[in-house]
## 1
Amino acid sequence: MFAKMTTSADSASALKMESMWRRVLGGGQAPIWIATVVLFAVSPLVAPGSLKASALLSMLPFAAVLAIAAVGQMLVIQQRGLDLSVPGMMAFGAGLVTGLSQWYGWPVWAAIAGAIILPAIAGLINGIIVTRFGVMPLVVTLGMNAILLGTVFALSNGTPAGAPKEIADFTKGAVGVVPNALIIAVVVIVVGGFIAQRSIVGRKLTAVGVSERAASAVGFRVTLYQTMAYALAGAAFGIAAILYAGYVTTPPLFYGDKYLLPTITAVVLGGTALTGGRAALISTGVAALFLTQLGQLLRAVGWQESFQLIAQAVVLLIVILARAIVPMVSQSIKARRAATESQTVRA
């Protein structure tokens, strides 16, 4: 009897430990929160000035830009796609908000609207080609990326334009000590989270991402919601581009290249599965903060941008491997525990 009680207690303890490690390493939203807290705790030890007010205020606008762009990427990944047109979308949005105002004399509000609506239309085209013609998302978005980059170069004649003063003043401004760009990012994430969790549209997007067949069986218009995801992603990229253009004033033509890998990494770190399903908006925003602070920390210790990209790729690879390995280890532990308990009962 004592042996059976001991075995039962050991099994319960092992189950708790397994559950803890599964939550920490096997996916979900907890890991990125833990990693972000650890990163900010370690930052002053590695680079003493990395958490000064000036350093944080210069980092947060870039975290906001990445967070909004990552939300766009997340919408596509939720539908089991991957958007490789991020560089072109970002360059297109920035080129529109700066060029339409400086070169074509558009009012600022019209340039802003164009920088959101036209990338959304480009995303809509992506979605239509993917859903209606069955072309792989990677191929479609890669082609769209080339088209948009070519368009930006043609419209600008190879010379970047400057952001309108009103946009630059706003994006560099703050409410108290909170940068305006960060406020916009929080609004986008909160509104997006409310739509995803509380609205019929959001729930249908999630259902389609989880299982196209099941969603179609209950009468959801699968292609409509998948196409909508690509269009909304384009709008998100446009908003991110406007904030970036305003903050740096004169964005390089092809600055968007450095946002492709980070947007994917932020989505994966945030807990959204590459196989689609439920979206994790808030955690994706936290992941964007983590990656931006990590980049700033690496710059502070002298790492070049190329090594920062390698670090981001390594982080992404570790997370993907952990999510693949942890369930396998968990199943192995369960099998061994079942075999041990069976032998104990027989004894």
## 2
Amino acid sequence: MLIAALAPVSALGFRVHDAIGRFGIFVRFSGQALGALIRSPRATLRWRELAPLLLEVGTASIPVVALTGLMVGLILSVEGYTQFAAIGAERRMGGIINANVVKQIGPVLAAVMVAGRVGGAIAAEIGAMRISEQLDAMRAAGANPVARLVGPRVVACMVMTPVLTVYSDALGAFGAWAVLTQLYGVPSSEYWHYTSLFLVTLDPLNGLLKAACFGAAIGLISCYKGFSCSPGAAGVGRAATSAFVVSFVAIVAINLLLVEFMNALTVWIYGGLPRVL
């Protein structure tokens, strides 16, 4: 009776133990990949391998990132206008929306799009190489598959996610400007005036730093899922799905940590958070 009652607790303990073990393996995998990248960047980052990855991660993702960024700007301005107008703050909406887009929504949105569109593809590609024994063939030939495959993909995600963030920010700001100035009659000069007041110099750098960290996490997680996928087509599919889910959780967790860090840094540099109201 007691054993049956403790079975759920035992199962939970096994799951926690397994999760901790997998996280340790991921940390070791990431250390190997980043160590190889730092020790021999020229050998790891070959332009003929990196250029197609930059094109795939960046150019192919621009339409969906731009569209979603535009929609976010439109939705925030339409949804928020009534509430802000009720307290007489509708003229400040441009600053409030753009500050949140640049620091929070833009980087997270671009990273989620990269995780969904590119992260799953990376996991599936490397997973297919694993089940077809191409990774074993690389090891037999004396090559390090972690250094050869992971480094370029991590760098591509790390470089292009900030670029996509800029597109997302720009389209979000344009969408909010179009609604507030053309639909609700907010003067364009005041829209940009309050945007400049709400955004300090550190804020765009904040967003780009977040995007780079998100991109690095997406690349490492997706490659790890590919290297550790189960045999068979079903295993590749599970690896691709898991790559997106884990990347999304990592994006949220990293964002929380960086919000606290960047707020503390802003207070330290400027002597406090900007006051514009």
